[in-house]
User: Fold this.
Amino acid sequence: MIITYHGGEFFKVQFGDIVLAFNPISKKSSLQQSRFGADVAFVTLLDKDTNGVENVSRAERTPFIVSSPGEYEIGGVFVRGFPSISRYGGKERENTIYSVSLEGMNLCFLGALSGATLSSEITESLGDIDILFVPIGGDGVLTAREAYKFSITLGPRLIIPMHWSGLGEKDSLKVFLKEGGEEGQKSIDKLTVKKKELENKEAEIAVLSPVV
Assistant:
């Protein structure tokens, strides 16, 4: 699995021939945009900064769009979406948390989550999390301190912070790494990971540099 970060909450996840896009940035956003073709596009919040599905559509790939809670199976990708609350943009709106399973890997994408609690039913349904994507920027989503403490309660093997590049409060990444005892960690251009490499990890943090 290869993961790249495109700023905001926008990620590309590639596993073999399958390409997933999470919260792509739209043409209406002031954030820097990236374009590539995806097989599935996940949108957690209907906002210009997270709903740019036009930027992950190419001639050879027109994505299946998942933008609400529910259960889905798309070409070997198994998805469960759970409702939550976001206050990003200054008003309360529904944010969908996604649990995505493919080839034995379980990803949890929190999107623009603003509350540091989930119902026991949702927490149990998320199950065993290999990789957790968590917003850390405050200003309508979790703050860095809230995000780290909340992440630990979910028990992920690997944590990838988001909503710090181009969005959110200044120095949120620095605060998040300090909370996790990983100050000074260097960011990487992309993350290449296999299931077996995660087996002995416990809440390890990986910081990805935004693709420019």
